[in-house]
Amino acid sequence: EAGVAQSPRYKIIEKRQSVAFWCNPISGHATLYWYQQILGQGPKLLIQFQNNGVVDDSQLPKDRFSAERLKGVDSTLKIQPAKLEDSAVYLCASSSVAGGLNEQFFGPGTRLTVL
Amino acid sequence: SQQGEEDPQALSIQEGENATMNCSYKTSINNLQWYRQNSGRGLVHLILIRSNEREKHSGRLRVTLDTSKKSSSLLITASRAADTASYFCATPRGSARQLTFGSGTQLTVLP
After folding, report:
1. Contact (CB<8Å) A99/B92
2. Which of A38, A92, A107, B69 has the fewest CB atoms within 10 Å, measured from its CB?
3. Domain limits of chain A?
4. What CATH number belongs to A15-97?
């Protein structure tokens, strides 16, 4: 079974630039998550999708972050414009059951550096 | 705010020794999960223990859950250098049962 795919693996940009990350979840998983993991901390949920609908985006900085999951499969997360504090690893995860009632499968992440 | 907090923040042991990590949480839960993260890689699910379970085993892993104390422990027996990683506990919370992670324990197993 193929795992969660993410690209790119690494990205370096300057502040105020824009960046986009892509995620392809495990086939058949209806629930998709984006997490932000700052160095030395645990992952923090940014947004949760159930199929192509948003379940929770309460911790997503909506003035600069946006995410979509068209057709309920792949998802993209965009930051525009980026700030220095956005430097982090962005993890995508998927699960067959919504929320934290079951295990989540994580991709390798995209390491973003904002200069 | 973090729901789960791991203790200790860092742990260094010799290969073959046992490693114990603890997790405390604040609100009632229906399950608690442990994840491992190797350097530069994504998280891997290790084990899930439900609120009506007190202990669970998976290979060299043993997890306990004490809901009265709102705490859990992860024991890795006969540790190996490959066990070197960060270990996170995670609990569902909120109306959508979002998984909330602690800050992790960095385990180093010396050969």
Report:
1. yes
2. B69
3. 15-97
4. 2.60.40.10
Give pLDDT, residue A72.
85
Answer whether B79 touches A (CB < 8 Å): no
Cβ atoms within 10 Å, residue A2: 8
- Alpha carbons A88 and A109: distance in angstroms, whole number: 10
A8 neighbors A109 (Cβ within 8 angstroms)? no
Are the beta carbons of B98 and A103 separated by less than 8 Å?
no
Q: With left for phi above 0 and alpha for psi between -120 and 50, is residue A89 left, alpha or beta?
A: beta
Is the separation of the CB atoms in B92 and B31 below 8 Å? yes
Kindly report, residue by residue over B3-17, the tens digit of the pLDDT: 568 889 999 999 999
Name the percent of chain A lying above pLDDT 90: 84
Say yes or no for a CB contact (<8 Å) between B101 and A42: yes
B48 part of contact set with chain A, CB < 8 Å: yes
Q: Is B77 on the interface with A (CB under 8 A)?
A: no
The domain of B40 spans 4-110
**What SS3 class is residue B100?**
strand
Backbone angles phi, psi at B40, to 5 degrees: 75, 15
Residue B106's domain is classified under what CATH number? 2.60.40.10
Domain count within chain B: 1
The minimum CA-CA distance between B58 and chain A, rounded to whole Å, is 15
The amino acid present at A90, given as its one-letter code, is: Y
Chain A residue with Cα closest to B93: A100
